[in-house]
Amino acid sequence: MADGRLVIGTKRYSSWSLRGWLMVHMAGLDVEEVLVPLAGGGGTQEIKAISPNGLVPYLEHLGARIWESIAIAEYCSEIAPTLWPADRIARAHARSIAAEMHAGFRALRMAMPMNLGRSFPGKGRNPECLADIARVEAIWAEALAAHTGPFLFGRAFTLADAMYAPVVTRFLTWQPELSDATKAYCQAVRAHPLVDRWYREAAAEPQEWLLEKYENPA
Ligand SMILES: N[C@@H](CCC(=O)N[C@@H](CS)C(=O)NCC(=O)O)C(=O)O
């Protein structure tokens, strides 16, 4: 029997679920995956009935109940401390940029929602979204330059990379103008075995789960 469960939404669309799922798999937790298809517009009643904040990801593990992806990151790092960088200063940096992702980039998230099955080059751009993209690129450039890649803090895929993985998918879908360093980082994240697995599982989801709002954005 599994040690608990991870509740997530539709893999094609649920960016926060991708974060939690990556973290739980990186930590090697033995949990059952419970996937609730998103209804769209935040109206998934089944999720509201299960999760304390009415949102996914939601983790139950050996008596602990954890919601909010940043809290799931910290819980997973208690089980697997190497998921944050070993160096204190790098770890503080990684936690800071993970927290910045958790708290912000609303314009980017609104203008370029995650859709792993589509490509919308040239669309979704507005000044606020482009400002968010510029800040993401600056964050990534600083970390990549300091730790020489391919991931933000060097050779290991850390919890900071997990927090930004859905941004990578947005960049691949919406294809804004990006630096070469950003594009190389996006390719490294896309090629990570867990990210690739999530993409394959998203592609296998039933047609009935597709939402018009995300398939044909304005
Ligand atoms: N701050 C939350 C955000 C979670 C969130 O917004 N999740 C969305 C899915 S990506 C959700 O559960 N929506 C509920 C719904 O669509 O009914 C976190 O960090 O986990």
Textual characterization of the structure:
With 218 residues, this protein is α+β, with helices and mostly antiparallel strands. The chain has 2 domains: 4-81, 3-Layer(aba) Sandwich (Glutaredoxin); 84-198, Glutathione S-transferase Yfyf (Class Pi), Chain A, domain 2, CATH 1.20.1050.10. The chain is built from 10 helices and 4 strands, in the order βαβαββαααααααα. It has helices at 15-27, 45-50, 69-79, 88-103, 106-111, 127-147, 159-174, 180-191, 193-203, 212-215, and strands at 4-8, 32-35, 58-61, 64-67. Strands 2-1-3-4 form a 4-stranded mixed sheet, covered by helices on one side. Helix 4 crosses helix 7. It starts with a strand and ends with a helix. The model has no long low-confidence stretch (mean pLDDT 97). The structure holds glutathione. Glutathione is lined by residues 9, 14-17, 38-39, 42-44, 47, 55-57, 68-69, 102. The site of glutathione (GSH) has 17 residues, from helix 1.
Secondary structure blueprint with pairings:
Layout: E1 4-8, H1 15-27, E2 32-35, H2 45-50, E3 58-61, E4 64-67, H3 69-79, H4 88-103, H5 106-111, H6 127-147, H7 159-174, H8 180-191, H9 193-203, H10 212-215
Parallel strand pairs: 1-2
Antiparallel strand pairs: 1-3, 3-4
Helix pairs in contact: 1-3, 1-7, 4-7, 7-8
GO molecular function: transferase activity
Protein name: Glutathione S-transferase
Domain GST N-terminal: 4-84
Features:
globular, 218 residues, binds glutathione, alpha+beta, Glutathione S-transferase Yfyf (Class Pi), Chain A, domain 2, four-stranded mixed β-sheet, 8% strand, 53% helix, Glutaredoxin
